[in-house]
Amino acid sequence: MADTLTMHEASIRLIAFISILLLMVVWERLAPRRIQQVSRALRWANNVGLVVLNTVLLRLLFPLAAVGAAVFAEQHQFGLFHYLNTPPAIALVLSVLLLDLLIYFQHRVFHHVPWLWRLHRMHHADQEFDVTTGLRFHPIEILLSMVIKLSAVALLGAPVAAVIIFEIVLNGTALFNHGNVRLPDWLDRRLRWVLVTPDMHRVHHSAEPEETNSNFGFSVSWWDRLFKTYRAETRAGQLKFLIGLHEFRTTKDQRLDQMLLQPFRHHR
After folding, report:
1. How is residue 252 annotated by DSSP?
2. Nearest residue to 98 via CA among 219, 3, 213
């Protein structure tokens, strides 16, 4: 079973990614939450160009990605769950939850350590908020994140299936919660007890620092509530607050070459 999943891991993830991306694009067209002011052609071309670059880099440097670390741990009986002889079903569930918790804390660290924030701020410098914002991460941040993820998978001894499920859930929820989509208020309130909704995560993309430093979760909302980083709304409300960063507001800042150089630019 693990061998079959490993062989088809890339195809499984690609099909899931494209399916969710297309669904969100259609949803954004039919029921947008905010009217966008910045050219979609400009933003999408550069944001999608960035994800293509990141994908090529990851496949060149980490051909088997995190799944390779899970295969290694299984073959060598390495990692916590192998050491404890944890039942497979329990190891799978715990692996998915613990990896998601790791991403939550990684996200917080990238906000609070200055040189890591320089990498991560490119994600926040998008002046609009839609599904392509969920693809917009600096290549160095992507590579650092992969090293952290590989280490965590190996140390846990996470099952192959758990890693694939986690990757699909993480990518899928990142596309969902960055969507410029409208949900009924009653549904958003109920979903927030479990999932990070677009309205909840949009708060995190406010230009105001105290609002940016909240709602760090990507998949489930439990971590923000548990660790006191949850914020229900911006002061200005969903439709009026400024998205992005105050220091990167020009059209030039949205070009791919400038996004790649952004961590090396100094701003007070």
Report:
1. G
2. 219
